[in-house]
Amino acid sequence: MAWWKAWIEQEGVTVKSSSHFNPDPDAETLYKAMKGIGVGSQLLSHQAAVFTLPSSTLTSASPWGGHSRCIPAGTNEQAIIDVLTKRSNAQRQQIAKSFKAQFGKDLTETLKSELSGKFERLIVALMYLPYRYEAKELHDAMKGLGTKEGVIIEILASRTKNQLQEIMKAYEEDYGSSLEEDIQADTSGYLERILVCLLQGSRDDVSSFVDPGLALQDAQDLYAAGEKIRGTDEMKFITILCTRSATHLLRVFEEYEKIANKSIEDSINSETHGSLEEAMLTVVKCTRNLHSYFAERLYYAMKGAGTRDGTLIRNIVSRSEIDLNLTKCHFKKMYGKTLSSMIMEDTSGDYKNALLSLVGSDP
């Protein structure tokens, strides 16, 4: 399925709005679930989880004077999972407003102070508005030493023009600079050019019309730019891949294979390398089948030694209200195992439980 079709398929959603939703009790549940918020009478007034020390363990010398005393029992991570992974993003925003109104604290900041590690990273990601979350991922990919080109490529190659415009707007509002200018400052050469071209969203054409003559000409131009000559005309590849519609490109790929006797992917592999190769192949993969592309991203985030948690979190969070169910089906077809089973093998604890809750039941 072409990449742009995925955005209109509601059966792909794993996280849906909760019916009979009321943000106030959800906010109170989260308040009770977290330790260290309000002590003494205020904590007890909100019925925080407690345990009681037996009086036999206390002496008259005890600072508690021989009486039993309530002690906060710590953070109830499962309660946090049950609320935040079972509500839509719009509902989470309402919960955050209710939390602040009831308890005078910012929910996201409170979660950061109470949680840690990968579990914190996942739960905090759920609290961002979708476009602000993707803007944050792009900003984080470019800040500090080194650039995570794979993150930038993934987001820019798989989003529609409207989504890219919203991401650029959120990026400028949150970080005070232009996303395009930051990409230009942080990358160079043909990689910079293809990323800037992708940012324009020129492939966002959902019409089914394809001009067979133009498709054939594009295929011939790609062949002439790569296989037919010594060296590669990278800009010809970039221009066609980044400015033609998905339906048009699918026809171009068919014509190319007839001319070159090899797939466009094989030619890109042999003619380019590094991050430019990754960017071009990502465009092709997203054009052919967006769900297969994300299934591949999730698989390789967990395959082998270590887990690429950033990739795993980003793709599960960002796709959970779009097409994660469809991605799960492709994952099982491609790799012979379910996404859930691989998460169970590769992660642990509350982090694992939250991921599984977002992913939902197996296809």
TrEMBL record:
Any GO MF annotation of the entry: calcium-dependent phospholipid binding
- tRNA processing recorded as keyword: no
| UniProt binding sites for Ca(2+) | M302, G304, G306, D346
Q: Name one Pfam family in it.
A: Annexin
Name its GO BP terms in alphabetical order. Answer: endosomal transport; endosome organization
Tell me the InterPro entries matching this sequence: Annexin, Annexin_repeat, Annexin_repeat_CS, Annexin_sf, ANX8
One GO CC term, this protein: cytoplasm
Which keywords does this Swiss-Prot/TrEMBL entry list?
Annexin, Calcium, Calcium/phospholipid-binding, Metal-binding, Phosphoprotein, Repeat
* Domain note: A pair of annexin repeats may form one binding site for calcium and phospholipid.
| Family the UniProt entry places it in | Belongs to the annexin family.
Name of the protein this chain belongs to: Annexin
